[in-house]
């Protein structure tokens, strides 16, 4: 009797273990199952997204319900995953050769690798009737060789978010329009006893914004494109970007201990600006939301200005740097997945999403749906942009993007010269 | 539940031989040995299959991919590069720095962390009020997860508002930038490591100390040995096996250190607290250079394996003879 019970326990544990292992392997595999059962009229579309916070979280739940009731037999499996966890999970799943039916993508080099591996469905013909509704700047990150592999749902840009009260205190009355004026403003802020800039040195990506924008202003967008194609970042324009950045870091404009600071942590970059301990930060359109999350928030004192022009540079001050979010389809996604994409990208649904304040316009003529005054400035700058550059750590293959982040971080910390930065990025680009 | 069942089995084996005894004893013994072999194989099989599947196969795959340039996508790797990943690794200052930093952590652990754990274990072995509470307190950090420890210490070592610098500020000292100063960050990391792991070693030493018969200490005292001599010539040699195991665990742990560093500093600033495991993660998951990351993991594995085998062969072998023999050998 005792033996029998023990055996039963062992069997139960074994069953649990096997079930657990099988469960682990099951992620992302429903694409095949869905297409297999399509003949019987029932389709499940697995949708991985990163909308884990309100208002979008419940907005999507609502839209999924609406879509399902209009399309009997189609089930949308809505899987929201936190940003970093999403990236880790997706890279594991793609390495095993699978993708969810619909998933969040940031376009650029990462998406290109997935396309080259044959994991992504091309949308050019399936979505031909509605691809033209998106603005060209928003579409850019998902197009390769004239073909479209994804559609945008959000687009934004990086610029300076600043504290108007601290600027006034330091006697800076108008936001700087040129790099010289910008350096002057930094000096005035320092003289007034204000920390000019908050930077998350631990996380590297916020630092690369400075170098990227300077390269855009000095060398120009075409030079950046050419450098990526030629694997050569040693042209004078890129070295000059480093030299200009060094002019800034030599003023020691960053908060105390910035090399160890995170971005959204309790003492990180966002909190430092949000609590009025630094006058500005160079950050994307999501900055005000993170300000409220990580600190007190600046309220009406919060302002936005674009990255200043650099005297004598080839780039225009209206070229913007940023990125957004988009949807890509797994190569085995059923037609219902395309149908769902069309639905959430429609003028009616997307406009409602923009009105929640969580997303920025990606469709033509949607700008007036933005209510927040600061985001409205961002949306207008985007609509009037003369050129668009995707985040370098997204636009280039992952290794090159990370090398940009790494080398620029070293430049800011003072351990690499502008020439060494240009050389290190070139070396990595050549080896890819 | 277990004891009665065990007793049953024992009784059965004890009553077994008489049944099989008699003229046919020899063939039955062979059959029994054969059946025993079958039983062993049967019981080992699940473990062996799992071991092969979850340990041996991944090692083989990692060694295989380390010879390719591969971004991890699209089926099997195709771009064979031979030993290029390894030559690149030993030319990379970050990786060479990893080795140097690993050696530093090992040295600090052996010279500071373990003696500290030993000292506290000896202290807590004395009769004193609240001994159990102290033991619990010192062991508590080990129970926390590495991630929680990391988050906790990023807050403690925050440049302005952090607890450490607030306390130093009260004493009128302008606190250092614990995690943001490249020349200080390894010391901070070691401090956190010590806080986290010394309790574990302390418990090992306490257990070892309690296994030493009291009579030995008393006999030495009668022979006129003072407290230090009793520790040096009686306790320490008898603790030898425990110390050797704790050194082993400490070294292997330092070689593979990842989660604590990842949460505290992510290897920064400018790679000054990066370990081999962090480098491997950076290349594998951030840069998608799976081939190179595999090569790093292979080197990590080889270092651990060589150390483990060498240590087993030359240091731990003495312990198989038992602690008493070791003492006799030293005398």
Automatic annotation (TrEMBL), chain A:
<protein>
    <submittedName>
        <fullName>Extracellular solute-binding protein</fullName>
    </submittedName>
</protein>
<dbReference type="InterPro" id="IPR050490">
    <property type="entry name" value="Bact_solute-bd_prot1"/>
</dbReference>
<feature type="signal peptide">
    <location>
        <begin position="1"/>
        <end position="24"/>
    </location>
</feature>
<dbReference type="InterPro" id="IPR006059">
    <property type="entry name" value="SBP"/>
</dbReference>
<dbReference type="Pfam" id="PF01547">
    <property type="entry name" value="SBP_bac_1"/>
</dbReference>
<keyword id="KW-0732">Signal</keyword>
From TrEMBL, chain B:
<dbReference type="InterPro" id="IPR051393">
    <property type="entry name" value="ABC_transporter_permease"/>
</dbReference>
<keyword id="KW-0812">Transmembrane</keyword>
<feature type="transmembrane region" description="Helical">
    <location>
        <begin position="136"/>
        <end position="157"/>
    </location>
</feature>
<feature type="transmembrane region" description="Helical">
    <location>
        <begin position="103"/>
        <end position="124"/>
    </location>
</feature>
<dbReference type="Pfam" id="PF00528">
    <property type="entry name" value="BPD_transp_1"/>
</dbReference>
<feature type="transmembrane region" description="Helical">
    <location>
        <begin position="184"/>
        <end position="207"/>
    </location>
</feature>
<dbReference type="GO" id="GO:0055085">
    <property type="term" value="P:transmembrane transport"/>
</dbReference>
<feature type="compositionally biased region" description="Low complexity">
    <location>
        <begin position="14"/>
        <end position="27"/>
    </location>
</feature>
<feature type="transmembrane region" description="Helical">
    <location>
        <begin position="290"/>
        <end position="311"/>
    </location>
</feature>
<keyword id="KW-0472">Membrane</keyword>
<keyword id="KW-0813">Transport</keyword>
<feature type="domain" description="ABC transmembrane type-1">
    <location>
        <begin position="99"/>
        <end position="311"/>
    </location>
</feature>
<feature type="transmembrane region" description="Helical">
    <location>
        <begin position="247"/>
        <end position="270"/>
    </location>
</feature>
<comment type="similarity">
    <text>Belongs to the binding-protein-dependent transport system permease family.</text>
</comment>
<keyword id="KW-1003">Cell membrane</keyword>
<dbReference type="InterPro" id="IPR000515">
    <property type="entry name" value="MetI-like"/>
</dbReference>
<dbReference type="InterPro" id="IPR035906">
    <property type="entry name" value="MetI-like_sf"/>
</dbReference>
<protein>
    <submittedName>
        <fullName>Sugar ABC transporter permease</fullName>
    </submittedName>
</protein>
<keyword id="KW-1133">Transmembrane helix</keyword>
<feature type="transmembrane region" description="Helical">
    <location>
        <begin position="40"/>
        <end position="64"/>
    </location>
</feature>
<feature type="region of interest" description="Disordered">
    <location>
        <begin position="1"/>
        <end position="27"/>
    </location>
</feature>
<dbReference type="GO" id="GO:0005886">
    <property type="term" value="C:plasma membrane"/>
</dbReference>
């Amino acid at each position: 009797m005792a033996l029998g019970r023990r055996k039963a326990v062992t069997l139960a544990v074994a069953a649990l273990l096997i079930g657990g292992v099988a469960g682990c392997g099951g992620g992302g595999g429903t694409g095949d199952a869905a297409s297999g059962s399509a003949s019987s009229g029932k389709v499940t579309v697995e949708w991985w997204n990163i909308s884990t916070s309100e208002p979008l979280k419940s907005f999507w739940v609502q839209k999924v319900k609406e879509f399902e009731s209009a399309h009997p037999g189609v089930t949308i499996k809505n899987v929201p995953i936190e940003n970093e966890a999403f990236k880790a999970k997706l890279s594991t799943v793609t390495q095993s050769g699978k993708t969810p039916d619909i998933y969040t993508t940031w376009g650029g080099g990462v998406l290109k690798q997935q396309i080259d591996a044959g994991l992504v469905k091309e949308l050019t013909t399936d979505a031909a009737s509605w691809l033209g509704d998106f603005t060209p700047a928003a579409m850019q990150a998902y197009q390769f060789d004239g073909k479209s592999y994804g559609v945008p749902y959000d687009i934004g840009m990086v610029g300076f978010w600043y504290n108007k009260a601290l600027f006034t205190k330091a006697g800076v009355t108008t936001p700087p329009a040129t790099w010289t004026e910008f350096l002057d403003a930094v000096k005035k802020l320092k003289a007034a006893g204000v920390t000019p800039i908050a930077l998350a040195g631990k996380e590297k990506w916020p630092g690369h914004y400075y170098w990227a924008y300077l390269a855009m202003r000095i060398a120009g967008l075409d030079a950046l494109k050419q450098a990526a194609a030629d694997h050569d970042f040693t042209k004078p324009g890129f070295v000059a970007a480093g030299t200009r950045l060094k002019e800034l870091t030599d003023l020691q404009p960053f908060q105390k201990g910035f090399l160890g600071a995170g971005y959204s942590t309790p003492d990180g970059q966002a909190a430092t600006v949000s609590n009025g301990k630094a006058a500005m930060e160079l950050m994307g359109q999501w900055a005000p939301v993170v300000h409220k999350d990580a600190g007190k928030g600046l309220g009406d004192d919060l302002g936005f200005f674009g990255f200043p022009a650099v005297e004598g540079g080839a780039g225009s001050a209206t070229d913007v740097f940023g990125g957004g979010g988009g949807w890509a389809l797994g190569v085995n996604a059923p037609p219902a997945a395309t149908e769902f994409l069309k639905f959430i990208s429609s003028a009616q649904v997307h406009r409602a999403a923009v009105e929640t304040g969580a997303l920025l316009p990606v469709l033509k003529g949607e700008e007036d749906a933005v209510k927040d005054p600061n985001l409205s400035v961002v949306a207008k700058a985007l609509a009037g942009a003369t050129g668009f550059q995707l985040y370098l750590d997204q636009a280039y293959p992952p290794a090159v993007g990370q090398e940009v982040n790494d080398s620029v971080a070293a430049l800011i910390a003072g351990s690499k010269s502008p020439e060494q930065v240009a050389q290190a990025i070139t070396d990595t680009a050549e080896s890819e | 539940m277990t004891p009665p069942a065990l007793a049953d089995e024992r009784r059965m084996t004890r009553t077994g031989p008489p049944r099989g005894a008699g003229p046919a004893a020899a063939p039955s013994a062979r059959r029994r040995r054969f059946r025993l072999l079958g039983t062993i194989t049967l019981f080992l099989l699940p473990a062996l299959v799992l071991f092969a599947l979850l340990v041996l196969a991944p090692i083989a795959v990692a060694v295989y991919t380390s010879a390719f340039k591969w971004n991890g996508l699209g089926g099997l790797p195709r771009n064979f590069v031979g030993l290029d990943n390894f030559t690149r690794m030993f030319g990379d200052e970050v990786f060479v720095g990893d080795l140097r930093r690993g050696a530093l952590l090992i040295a600090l652990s052996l010279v500071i962390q373990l003696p500290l754990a030993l000292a506290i274990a000896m202290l807590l072995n004395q009769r004193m009020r609240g001994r159990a509470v102290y033991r619990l307190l010192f062991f508590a950090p080990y129970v926390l997860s590495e991630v929680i420890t990391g988050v906790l210490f990023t807050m403690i070592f925050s440049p302005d508002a952090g607890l450490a610098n607030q306390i130093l500020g009260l004493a009128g000292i302008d606190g250092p930038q614990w995690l943001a100063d490249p020349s200080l960050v390894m010391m901070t990391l070691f401090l956190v490591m010590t806080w986290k792991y010394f309790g574990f070693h302390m418990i090992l030493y306490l257990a070892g100390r309690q296994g030493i018969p009291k009579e030995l200490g008393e006999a030495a005292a009668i022979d006129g040995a003072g407290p230090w001599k009793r520790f040096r010539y009686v306790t320490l040699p008898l603790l030898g096996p425990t110390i050797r195991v704790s050194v082993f665990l400490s070294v292997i742990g330092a070689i593979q250190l990842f989660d604590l560093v990842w949460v505290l500093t992510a290897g920064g600033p400018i790679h000054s607290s990066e370990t081999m495991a962090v480098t491997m993660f950076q290349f594998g998951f951030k840069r998608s250079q799976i081939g190179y990351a595999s090569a790093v993991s292979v080197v990590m594995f080889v270092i651990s394996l060589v150390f483990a085998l060498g240590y087993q062969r030359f240091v731990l072998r003495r312990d198989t003879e038992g602690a008493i023999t070791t003492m006799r050998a030293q005398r």
